[in-house]
């Protein structure tokens, strides 16, 4: 591998080089992942199955969005699942004395 003299590069050149290296690393990792997936698919096919059948469909499963639990009494189009950060309308309603159970859908 050729040795690069980093001392002679400008800041912009160093940043560009870092960007190129990061891109090459990501591309390398993705290539290896694809190769591993292909090898697994070949083994599964050799046994008369698909990789998805072996993994039970988990290969492409996505997280489902949590169902809404609370509704803004002043604007019913605004809802919140009760997970994550409390929306501003929920905080304001609680500050005004509303009970969470009164905003349940």
UniProtKB/TrEMBL annotation:
One annotated Gene Ontology cellular component of this protein: cytosol
GO molecular function: bent DNA binding; DNA-binding transcription repressor activity; minor groove of adenine-thymine-rich DNA binding; transcription cis-regulatory region binding
Gene3D superfamilies according to UniProt: Histone-like protein H-NS, C-terminal domain (4.10.430.10)
Residue ranges constituting the DNA-binding protein H-NS-like C-terminal domain according to the UniProt record: 60-105
SUPFAM superfamilies linked: H-NS histone-like proteins (SSF81273)
Highest taxon of the lineage: Bacteria
Annotated segments matching region Disordered: 57-86
UniProt keywords, alphabetically: Cytoplasm, DNA-binding
Basic residues composition-biased segments: 59-68
Subcellular location: Cytoplasm, Nucleoid
InterPro entries per UniProt: H-NS_C_dom, H-NS_C_dom_sf
Family classification: Belongs to the histone-like protein H-NS family.
Identification of the protein by name: H-NS histone family protein
Organism encoding this protein: Kangsaoukella pontilimi
């Amino acid at each position: 591998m050729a040795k690069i003299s980093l001392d002679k590069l400008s800041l912009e050149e160093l940043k560009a080089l870092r960007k190129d290296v990061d891109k090459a690393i990501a591309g390398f990792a993705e290539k290896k992942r694809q190769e591993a997936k292909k090898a697994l698919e070949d083994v599964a096919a050799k046994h008369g199955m698909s990789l998805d059948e072996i993994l039970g469909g988990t290969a492409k499963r996505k997280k489902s969005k949590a169902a809404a639990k609370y509704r803004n009494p002043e604007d019913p189009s605004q809802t919140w699942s009760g997970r994550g950060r409390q929306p501003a309308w929920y905080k304001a309603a609680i500050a005004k004395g509303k009970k969470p159970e009164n905003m349940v859908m």
